[in-house]
Amino acid sequence: MESKEVLLVNCVGEYIVISIQEFNALLTNPFAIHSDTFKLLKCKNFFTDYDLELAIEMLATKLRTRKAFLRNFTSLHMVVLTAHCNGRCDYCHASSSDVAKGPLSQNMRPDVADAVVDMIFMSPSQYIKIEFQGGEPLINWEVLVRIVHRAKKINKTANKKLEFVVCTNMTLLDYDKVKFLMKEGIQISTSLDGPKELHDLHRKMRDGSSSYDKFIENLSIVCRVMEAESVSPLLTITRDHLKRLPEVIDEYIRLGFKGIFLRSLNPYGFAREDLAALGYSMEEFIEAYKEGFDYILQKNRNGVHFVEYFATLILSRILTPFSTGFVDLQFPAGAGISGVIYDYDGCVYPSDEARMLARTGDKKFLLGNVIDNSYEEIFEGNKLKSIISMSCAEVMPGCTSCVYQAYCGSDPVRNYVESGDVMGFRPSSDFCKKNMGIIDFLFKYILENNEQVMDIFWSWITGRSLEDVRL
Ligand code: SF4
């Protein structure tokens, strides 16, 4: 966009770019109803000069579509099966504890697991995703199996759309476990930080072995038994990755993965302790992101279908009227109302980050415990209501007047960690800096309107091949 142009976005995310002269003319003469600009703005529901009620009804319908995630209430239920791990990654957000030291006192007990499943099925949502987390959740394999069986049994009468994901470093997988995951339809979310040297640099095993070698060995078992799409890796970008994202992307493509999520380091757990060695400024991240993104775009131009997932989420928010289900890109925040996490001891937190914060001793976001509290006390209590009421863009200073409000979201826990205040302070917020920087960057591509690039964007959004999109 030229600096002499103005981007206008309304509350339902429709946008238009007009010249500064047109913008000034509208301000000084808003009744220039015969101008082309006015007609365009009218089409996109910025203005109306006829039936006001009808215009409001149309806007309301569009807003309902964008906020459809509110209808479902909590659908993502993360269950921490253990706080122990056989790895000791430098940036571990969950501050995992050693598996070799003493009894596994931080494993979820069977009775707690049963209470967690019972509470999950109290959610009014018709769609339930249970995501197993840790530590390394495979350490508590028996409880994982127990939860899957109990949830499926309850679901025979509850009749919800039920899905499972296990977030694992894959080092403890074996053929029998993979067969169970396949039989029960459990997806694998894992971690891959690039080629061997880069992956092993911060993803360390407590016994000193290479986490990459074990990952590759077990990936081959998984690929023999399950469909390739059942595995999706996550990248954690440290200071050492900033200049090497093309190498990481090449490794993902080499191993057959279809996309990557270029995400910045979160300031929780061990990552927070080691921030000086692992971290970087948000400006540095955005520069690295742009380089990685352009590299991916070039791959797509060369015929390799490979997706950048964060951009895809934002592009969906800009180019379609739908919500994405991604809890960090929605107002109000998804904390508790879209996703929730049950710690190994039954404590319930509105987000994974809140649980990580609690591991460092700050239990500000603790909602209750599945053993001691009822569903109503946890999910309808004042604490969750207060968190949610402070995560609506309409009341958040800075976001209220931001042009990107319709595409962005909020993270009350991150706000609290960054500024000591749940509502946060936008001028110094890294969350805001990142979203604003990346939305700015993507808007440049959108407004250039290059046919090939837009086809690539639509192939990412719709999950279809480029050929399909072109047809
Ligand atoms: S970019 Fe920043 S100010 Fe704008 S809506 Fe997002 S968080 Fe709020």
What is the level 1 CATH name of the largest domain?
Alpha Beta
CATH topology of the largest domain: TIM Barrel
pLDDT < 50 stretches: none
Give me the number of helical elements. Answer: 21
> What Rg, in angstroms, do the CA atoms define?
23 Å
The order of strands across the largest sheet is: 9-8-7-6-3-12-13-14
Shape: globular
- Given helix and strand content, the structural type is alpha/beta
Q: What does the average pLDDT come to?
A: 92
- The helical percent reads 40-55%
Question: Which band does the percent of strand residues land in?
Answer: 5-15%
How many independent structural domains?
2
Number of strands: 14
> Terminal Cα separation, in Å?
29 Å
What do we call the CATH homologous superfamily of the largest domain? Aldolase class I
Q: Mind summarizing the main beta sheet? A: 8 strands, mixed
**Gross CATH architecture of the largest domain:** Alpha-Beta Barrel
**Small-molecule components bound:** iron/sulfur cluster
Domain Radical SAM core: 70-308
GO molecular function, one term: metal ion binding
InterPro entries: Aldolase_TIM, rSAM, rSAM_paired_HxsB, rSAM_sf, Sulphatase_maturase_rSAM
Keywords: Iron, Iron-sulfur, Metal-binding, S-adenosyl-L-methionine
Q: How would you describe this protein?
A:
The protein is α/β, with parallel strands linked by helices. The protein folds into two domains: 1-66, no CATH class; 69-358, Aldolase class I (TIM Barrel), CATH 3.20.20. The chain contains 21 helices and 14 strands. An eight-stranded mixed β-sheet has the order 9-8-7-6-3-12-13-14. α5 runs parallel beside α6 (141-158). The mean pLDDT is 92. Iron/sulfur cluster (SF4) binds at residues 393, 398-399, 402, 404-405, 408, 426, 432, 435-436. Residues 70-308 form the Radical SAM core domain. GO terms for molecular function: iron-sulfur cluster binding; metal ion binding; oxidoreductase activity.
